[in-house]
Amino acid sequence: MLLSRAKAATGPSTVEEKEKKKKKLPKLEDFVTARDYTGAVTLLEFERANNKNDTTTAMWIAYCYFHLGDYKKSMKEYQLITDMKGCPVEAWTYLACSMFFLGMYKEAEEACAKGPKSKLQNRLMFHLSHKFNDEKKLMGYHKNLQDIVEDQLSLASIHYLRSHYQEAIDIYKRVLLENSSNGGSKKEFLALNVYVALCYYKLDYYDVSQEVLAVYLQHFPDSTVAINLKACNHFRLYNGKAAEAELKNLSDVCSPSFKFASDLIKHNLVVFRSGESALQVLPPLIDVIPEARLNLVIYYLRQDDIQEAYNHFKDISPTTPQEYILKGVVNAALGQEQGLNDHIKIAQQYFQLVGGSASECDTIPGRQCMASCFFLLKQFEDVLIYLNSIKSYFYNEDPFNFNFGQAKAATGKFKEAEEIFLMVQSEKMKSDYVYLGWLARCYIMNRKPRLAWELYLKQETSSESFSLLQLIANDCYKMGQFYYSAKAFDVLERLDPNPEYWEGKRGACIGLFQQIIAGHEPKETLREILAILRNTGNAQVEYIIRIMKKWAKDNRVSVT
Question: What angle (nearest 5°) sits at the alpha carbon of residue 176, between those of residues 174 and 182?
Fold first, then answer.
């Protein structure tokens, strides 16, 4: 057992280490410089608890909470400061900033008006004017903007919010160029690459967005905003699983207490997972994330709950192309489902507005809008002009092929339409009567009536199967495919003893008899014709059967 030590338990060296530690106690400036606002708040709260509860400490605490994205706590701190005697007047402007980020625009305007005139106040009022759609005030504050970085970035953000993405990109690139040429630190403005990438994302240039974003991610691989944007690019370029994998990387590098952008990530996961947990996640986010309402409406549309989708969107005035498009889709769906022409006309107007706009006319969504507009107007030749221009982007997309096939068939291009319809994989779509009806018509027009008849045989008895039977009976008759026309009219007559069905069956049977005589149909088919005719109790039946039997006897055709 060792009873001695190589070094004493306490001694001069330990005392020296303690002195060094005392000297190295972090200061507020160190935390702020390192952008460690959590550490800064911890230090400030400790100082406040130790009777250092002055205005300066409170201002710094509010500032740190603001930069942590905890705008509620920041607002409460600034409210306490503004209640103090002799509070700094700029506290009102800072309070307004916190309220702005909480969506309290009216309150933010009132607080901002109490603050001193400054560049920050002008920028904030500039953004508030945009939120209030007050174009006159917005232009007034726009004139007060100067050629300084903060004001130019503020202008770029307004361009972004108004969907003027190229104008925003131009400002961001100019700021980056000017500051690098003036000897400024490239790292200081590195985050502008994220804004540029976001603009390219909005312009549907997902590959370019990824390239620009990579510049920032090389320096800050754990950035929440950048990783989220990268995930969104992957969603557009690949699929939801690839996007979700990127967000998993984010959750791996972040601590459980890290709350920044958590709502955005929850929202995006719903989108990446095709609407999973939409009703739990999206409703509370409607007033937090602008896209939440749009994605909730899309969820209802996918669930075929068109009325609910309309209810969530009917009082919203669209301001962005995406909102106009979705408003058009909802009105078109409701109009078609309930036979309301007014809604279909509204949908046409929305689609034409987007497709005809200078900013959207050459984009894929813009061309889809024009195709949709002409589709509702039943101008299918025009529909094909637009769909042909973008078909390479939607080769395996079922909704696109469904609509493309209908347009082809409506213009008489049945061979191409058949090929396109058969590319549809969705079982839900393939069981839709519209799909079945068009595919059956394509089969008949392409002289494949047997395949059309097999489509009917697979259906359960319903009003839609009855309609399909009518289509087969009439289309086969028009095309001289009397065998399947007779079979279809026979079933129709048994389901509904309408004289028109007997007339159709009679004509089809006589037409088929003529084809047998001409050698275009096998003679054995005559036996089936007689069986079909005997299913009717009409007085004309015996006369027709007698003539057919006489011909069969003369030509030695067995009909027994």
Answer: 95
